[in-house]
Design a protein that fits this description.
This is DcmR-like sensory protein. The chain is an alpha/beta fold. It has nine helices and eleven strands. Helices cover 41% and strands 24% of the residues. The protein starts with a strand and ends with a strand.
Length: 245
């Protein structure tokens, strides 16, 4: 879950609800953020953001491994899993930091499909701005309403299967290009677009360019025969549209 907030108290309120639900479910809970009081009065850990994620450029694979190890430790201690509420606004000062963190967000999303690990990430609008938040929100299955026009996130524990939902048009061309680059370049990609509300020809061409750049094939699955007809008109060389029931 991606939570875009306007003040720290708002995030702490949402974090408290999220972590309280974790305690009720028997999970170990962590609050990750700047120094301050715990959002709930319950056993758990309060961890500084830099301690949890490091002070340097984030290594996406290493961060996923760290949370996997913490989840295993929670299970070994008798908990049902690990639940984390993290304010990560200070981790994104440069484009390189944002790129690394976005890749991590996508990777941890795949881990969460099968592991007893749950997380909500907080992003401060005043610090980051709407454009940066959209880059991260679009890689989550759920986000604050209006924070991203579409969502691109893992559909399966197997690499190469990705959900694509929402609306794609001329205004989302650059955001889609950036999001695709942060997923799994070089792999054959199956986009599960059954829940897409709209996709235009420019977005199909973005998908085609992505597949061409990575010398792979992209399959877009949709419930709309109109999307297949659109693809037949523009004849993209590197994507195939499949209409599914």
């Amino acid at each position: 879950m991606c939570l875009a907030y306007d003040d720290a108290a708002e995030f702490r309120t949402h974090a408290a609800d999220f972590l309280t639900a974790g305690v009720a479910a028997g999970e170990h809970v962590w609050f990750v953020g700047p120094a301050g009081p715990a959002p709930i009065d319950a056993p758990g850990r309060i961890i500084d953001t830099a301690q949890a994620y490091g002070a340097d450029l984030l290594d996406p694979a290493a961060q996923v491994a760290a949370y996997a190890a913490a989840t295993d430790a929670a299970l070994a201690a008798g908990y049902t899993g690990l639940r984390v509420a993290a304010d990560v606004s200070t981790l994104l000062p440069t484009p390189a930091h944002r790129d690394a963190f976005a890749r991590y967000e996508f990777a941890i999303g795949r881990y969460m499909l099968t592991a007893p690990f749950r997380a909500v990430c907080g992003y401060d609008r005043a610090t980051l701005g709407d454009a940066v938040i959209a880059e991260l929100a679009c890689l989550h299955p759920r986000a604050t309403a209006g924070s991203a026009p579409f969502h691109l996130y893992p559909a399966s524990p197997r690499p190469g299967h990705v959900h694509l939902t929402g609306e794609l048009d001329v205004t989302t061309e650059q955001l889609l290009t950036t999001a695709l680059r942060r997923t799994e370049p070089g792999r054959p990609l199956v986009l599960h677009g059954e829940q897409l509300d709209f996709i235009d020809h420019r977005s199909l061409l973005v998908l085609d360019r992505h597949a061409e750049q990575h010398r792979t094939t992209l399959v877009l699955r949709t419930r709309s025969s109109a999307v297949r007809r659109l693809a037949e008109l523009i004849e993209p060389a590197h994507i195939r549209v499949e209409v599914v029931a």
